[in-house]
């Protein structure tokens, strides 16, 4: 007889892991949180084989750089748990965040970074072991390099900056981080600990019921900020967005390949092949990226690996319109999904290709949770019960929609808008 499945709590604010899978539309979803955001090639191959053997062979790379094994059957889950546990890929026990910190997948190999964020993130993980934190809370530790994390949706953002206090500290707010000051790198873990303890105390004392710092009101955010002594600091300068795919310079004269995936979905064969490429041509690491692709560091000669990645279904062309579109698994893969978001996102990307090339961002969400893209997008489409989409210009999936349109109506308006500026007007006016 197989072991009973752990019972995942049915409350808002929890996140699935390996110990606590989530029941969803295509079976159990098991989320692997790679320690430090890095998998060795052998570990990646093991995850791929586990997805093929115990699930339906499909995986997602999440917006926090985790890997989701999909379609796991109750009968196969105990063996999957044992396999991942033997490999050291099971999160610690407890009800808090499965992995508290997010770092750039280029940390430690990025010539542009001000500091390697990985040691600081590890220190934050160790220091900020705070009880009563909701499972979705996380801290972005941004080394100031090629991939800015300011838009990651983190509750707390630490960003490396110039100056004697080189870590700027931001608290999540609806319009983006509210920068509350700066601190020394050695003091940053205790600063994070104090802020998270303050948030947990607000919840325990009944002063708020929200599960994320971004949902506090401004007075409550000020209460948190008052708990820490920080040097004054303006908002850090904005940095260019990271390339969505392709080759990126790294330390030692080598390159890192960011192999993008359409809407973050890959299959077991793709992950296994990436593991083989990393072992044969790179550093032997695979780093799932918040941009929902895979980073392979240490590539000395990119020619072979680029051709093989493209042939295996990875996106390596920076002009591919799908790169500017975020989409969740949707229905029927996700139990909360109301529409087949990835299937709809592909023709939407084609219809909006001229707008996406001009810088438009498009988010296709199967439901109001907005898992694939927690922040704002120029256009957010939220699936409705009748299969239509609620349209939110310049907002998130949680914001109220201004229009309710069928997929065909959305595509028509996207095709007919000559520029992103014209699109805003077209989306607010009834079709003729």
Automatic annotation (TrEMBL):
One of its GO terms (molecular function) is heme binding. It comes from the Bacteria. Residues 20-87, 255-301 form the Nitrite/Sulfite reductase ferredoxin-like domain. Keywords: 4Fe-4S, Heme, Iron, Iron-sulfur, Metal-binding, Oxidoreductase. Pfam families: NIR_SIR_ferr (PF03460). Its EC number is 1.14.13.83. This is Precorrin-3B synthase. The lineage of its organism: Bacteria, Pseudomonadati, Pseudomonadota, Alphaproteobacteria, Hyphomicrobiales.
């Amino acid at each position: 007889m197989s072991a009973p499945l752990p019972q995942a709590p049915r409350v808002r604010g929890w996140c699935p892991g390996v110990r606590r899978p989530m029941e969803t539309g295509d079976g159990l979803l098991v989320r692997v949180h790679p320690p430090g955001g890095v998998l060795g090639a052998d570990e990646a191959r093991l995850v791929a084989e586990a997805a093929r053997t115990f699930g339906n062979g499909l995986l997602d790379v999440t917006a926090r750089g985790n890997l989701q094994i999909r379609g796991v059957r109750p009968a196969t889950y105990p063996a999957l748990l044992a396999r991942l546990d033997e490999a050291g890929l099971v999160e610690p026990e407890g009800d808090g965040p499965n992995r508290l910190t997010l770092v750039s997948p280029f940390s430690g190999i990025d010539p542009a970074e001000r500091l390697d964020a990985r040691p600081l993130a590890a220190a934050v993980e160790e220091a900020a072991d705070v009880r009563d934190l909701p499972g979705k809370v996380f801290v972005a530790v941004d080394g100031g390099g090629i991939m800015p994390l300011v838009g990651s949706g983190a509750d707390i953002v630490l960003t490396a900056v110039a100056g004697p206090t080189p870590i700027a500290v931001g608290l999540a707010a609806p319009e983006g981080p509210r920068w509350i000051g700066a601190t020394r790198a050695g003091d940053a873990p205790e600063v994070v600990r104090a802020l998270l303890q303050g948030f947990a105390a607000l919840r325990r004392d009944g002063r708020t019921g929200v599960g994320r710092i971004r949902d506090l009101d401004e007075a409550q955010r000020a209460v948190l900020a008052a708990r820490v002594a920080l040097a004054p600091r303006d908002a850090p300068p904005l940095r260019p967005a990271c390339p969505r795919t392709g080759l990126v310079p790294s330390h030692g004269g080598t390159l890192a390949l960011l192999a993008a995936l359409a809407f973050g979905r890959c299959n077991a064969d793709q992950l296994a092949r990436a593991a083989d490429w990393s072992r044969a041509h790179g550093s032997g690491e695979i780093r799932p990226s918040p941009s929902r692709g895979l980073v392979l560091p240490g590539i000395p000669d990119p020619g072979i690996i680029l051709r093989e990645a493209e042939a295996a279904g990875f996106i390596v062309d920076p002009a591919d319109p799908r790169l500017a579109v975020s989409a969740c698994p949707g229905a029927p893969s996700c139990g909360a999904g109301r529409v087949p978001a990835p299937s709809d996102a592909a023709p939407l990307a084609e219809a909006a290709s001229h707008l996406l090339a001009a810088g438009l961002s498009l988010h296709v969400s199967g439901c109001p949770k907005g898992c694939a893209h927690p922040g704002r997008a120029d256009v957010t489409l939220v699936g409705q019960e009748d299969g239509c989409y609620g349209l939110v210009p310049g907002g998130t999936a949680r914001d109220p929609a201004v229009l309710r349109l069928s997929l065909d109506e959305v595509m028509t308006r996207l095709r007919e808008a000559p520029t992103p500026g014209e699109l805003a007007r077209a989306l607010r006016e009834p079709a003729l």
